[in-house]
């Protein structure tokens, strides 16, 4: 009986060793649990996303370095948490002038810096565009997109009066694809030059409201013809998300930051086949042990 128990323990130990390596490899490629973060505009790139840990070359810009310095932080690790609880649609009452980009949060104060060298995205006025809002933790809610009015000067602090009084685009619970909300809409016509896209995301399943400032450069219509007189600032629906933008940004910002490709774990040559193979070996070994026990009994 002692010999039999020793053999059984040895077989079980060997089986565990067979499983250990592929399981360790599988855990290595699985995505970590999401941090307590939620979202920000990534196309056109927002200041928070550009200056955050996922901003790439933009994070090394002079504007981003100055924003970090004035915020008293070494990096915007929580670039997707520019959020304020309990606003309930009273944005203009709760967020002071000059603090629209930071939401009045001290740790993001540098995002309010009045300067003209923020990382920007070039768009064409009047074009249909797919706006991309990265959702590190998805929520239900409504997006309101505002554009600064004519005469906006990026070298002065952003005020509510600098924005058009009504959003040019509104979308409630737009499609979530590849970790980002896709918001379809048309940019106002008749606009050129530097502007700022201000995005308000009011959650309906949490008390939070998120704020994003995206610096853009608006170009006239292709070919220099067909320019409309005045702006097209009417509110538009978010669309069903099936159409793609006719004119993607010329300086396309990195959208789905931090996305994990599940094919790395399940594709040919991945670690899942190893786990399956090890499990099959374990089943054979256990069956053999049970057969030997039957003979002993």
Write the layout of secondary structure elements.
Layout: H1 2-29, E1 39-43, H2 47-51, H3 62-71, E2 83-85, H4 91-94, E3 120-124, E4 128-135, E5 141-147, E6 169-172, E7 176-177, E8 180-186, E9 193-203, E10 208-219, H5 263-266, H6 272-296
Parallel strand pairs: 3-10
Antiparallel strand pairs: 1-4, 2-10, 4-8, 5-6, 5-9, 7-8, 9-10
Helix pairs in contact: 1-6
What is the CATH architecture assignment of the largest domain?
A: Distorted Sandwich
The main β sheet shows up as:
6 strands, mixed
Rg over CA atoms = 26 Å
* Classification by helices and strands: alpha+beta
How would you describe the shape? Answer: globular
Indicate the percent of residues in helices.
Answer: 25-40%
Structure description:
With 297 residues, this protein is of the alpha+beta class. The protein folds into two domains: 2-29 and 271-296; 39-224, chitin-binding protein cbp21 (Coagulation Factor XIII, Chain A, domain 1, Distorted Sandwich). The protein is built from six helices and ten strands; from the N terminus they run αβααβαββββββββαα. The chain has helices at residues 2-29, 47-51, 62-71, 91-94, 263-266, 272-296, and strands at 39-43, 83-85, 120-124, 128-135, 141-147, 169-172, 176-177, 180-186, 193-203, 208-219. Strands 2, 3, 5, 6, 9 and 10 form a six-stranded mixed beta sheet that branches. The chain has a four-stranded antiparallel beta sheet with strand order 1-4-8-7. A hairpin with a 2-residue loop joins strand 7 and strand 8 (180-186). The longest helix is centred in the N-terminal third of the chain and has 28 residues, at 2-29. The model is unreliable at 1-37, 225-286 and 289-297 (pLDDT under 50).
